[in-house]
Amino acid sequence: MISISTTLIYNGTILTMNVDNEVYSPGYVYIQHDQIVETGAWPMEEGSIRHLLEADRKIDAGGKAVIPGLINGHTHLFQTFLRGVSDDHPLSEWLRQVIWPGSLAMEAEDFYLAALIGCIENLKSGATYIMDHHYIHTYEENTENVLRAMVESGIRGHLARGGVDLSYEPRLREEEDVIFERTAALLDRWQGEGTGRIEIAMGPLNLYGCSRPFLERAARFSLDRNLITHIHVAETSDQIDNTLSRFGLRNLELVEAVGMLGPRTQVVHGIWLDDGELELLAKHQASIIHCPVSNMYLASGVARVPEMRKAGINVALGTDGPGSNNCQDNLEVLKFTACLHKVHHLDSTMLPPMEVLEMGTRGGAKAMGREKDLGSLEPGKKADIVIIDMQKAHIAPIHRYSSALVYNANGNDVHTVFVNGQIVVEAGRCTLVDEEEIIRRAQARVDRLREKLMNRYPAYSVRS
C-alpha cells in the first residue's frame, strides 16, 4: 500500500468558515497527515505547480464545494432500528409506544448494527463529528457496541453515557452508583480510541428522570474530569411544569442550582426557556444544541435561536435520533433550520445561509470544546473535510455557494469525506465498512425485532 502523507484538494469552491467566512472560488486546501497546512486561492501566485508535483494525492474539486466537516451535536444512533415505526405522536406517547418498547427489545448485536448504519449515514451526509446520547443499557455490551461502530466507521465524536435514576420507565432506571462506575469504566477503556477520535461525555438523560442528588453528583463528576455534560432540557412545556412542581425551579434554573451549568454544558433543545434562562445560558457560556427537524416532527415547539444568537449564546445543530427525524441528513438540517425560523417569525431575513453554516460548523466545534482544531478550514486545524458535488440538476446553476449548500444540497450530493486526513467516504461510498452487508444484516434483525413486538404494541403491527 502506498503511504499518503500529503493531499492537495484544488480547483473547488472553498468555504473556509473562518471568522471572516472567507470563500475561495476557486481555491485549494493542502493537507499534511491529519492537519490542514494551507488554504487559499487557486491557482496560487506561486507554488501551484510545486504542490501539484509534490502532493501524494491530488483531488480536482472543480464543480464542487469544499467545507469543514459538519458537526452533529445530538443524536441517538440506536434509533436507526426504530425510524418510521409510527409517526404522528407527541413526545410522551412516542416514547411509550415506539422508543421504549423497541429499544428494550433490541439485543446487543442490534445496537452495533444500528449505530454503524447511523455512522454511515452521518458521514455520507457531511457530518464528520457526532455526539451520540446513548441511554439504553439492557445489555452490558450495548454501549461498547456503539463505540465499536464509531471506531470502525472512521467518524469522530463523543458518546454521552446517558442514564436516569428515577422510575419514569422502570426498565431504564439504573442505580446511581452503577451509572458512575460504568461511565468511569468507559473513560478508562474508550477515551482517545480510534487514533484520538473518540471521547466520552456525561449524559444525564433529562431532568424529569433524574433526582437532584444524581444531577449534583453528575455535575461534580464532569467538573472533576473536565467532561462535557450533555442533557435534554425544556424540550416540552410539560418538562418545565415538572421541575416547577418538584423544586420550584424552571428547567435551566435547576441545571444551574445543581452546579451543572457552564462552558462545557450542552443544553439539548431548550425550546421552552424563558428570558431569565437565556440570561443564564449567556452568563455561564453554555451551548444550545438545536434540533429543528425533531422539534417539528414531534410538535415540541420552536427554540428561540435568533434571540439566543443575538444574546451571544453559542448554538450548534443536531439531527436528533433517527426515531424522530427520521434520517441523519445533516445538510437537510441546514435548510430546516433556516426555513423554520423564517416562518415562525414571519421574517424572511432570519438566519441567512452563512449564519446557518456557522452553527453547523464553528458552533458545533465550540460546543464540543474543539474550536481550536475543528469547525473551519484553516492551517493547523484537523483535516475533517467534506467535498460536495454541486453539478446536479437540483443545485446548478449556482449564484452563491452558501445559499446552494443550505437550500439545495442534501446528503446524496456528498462526494468525499476526510476525517483526520483519512478518506472515509469516496465517490459517495464509505471506504471502511461494507454498506450493503451492514444493511442486509440490519434489515434481518429489524424484521425479527418487529415480530417480537407486533402482537403487544400496535405501532409495530402496521406495515403500510
TrEMBL record:
Gene3D superfamilies reported in the protein's UniProt record: Metal-dependent hydrolases, Urease, subunit C, domain 1
Family matches, as CDD domains: ATZ_TRZ_like
Source organism, top-level taxon: Bacteria
Domain Amidohydrolase-related per the UniProt entry, residue ranges: 66-424
UniProt xrefs under InterPro entries: Amidohydro-rel, Metal-dep_hydrolase_composite, Metal_Hydrolase, MTA/SAH_deaminase
Keywords for this protein: Hydrolase
Gene Ontology MF term list: hydrolase activity, acting on carbon-nitrogen (but not peptide) bonds
PANTHER family noted in UniProt: AMIDOHYDROLASE-RELATED DOMAIN-CONTAINING PROTEIN, AMINOHYDROLASE SSNA-RELATED
Protein name per the record: Amidohydrolase
Species assigned in the record: Paenibacillus urinalis
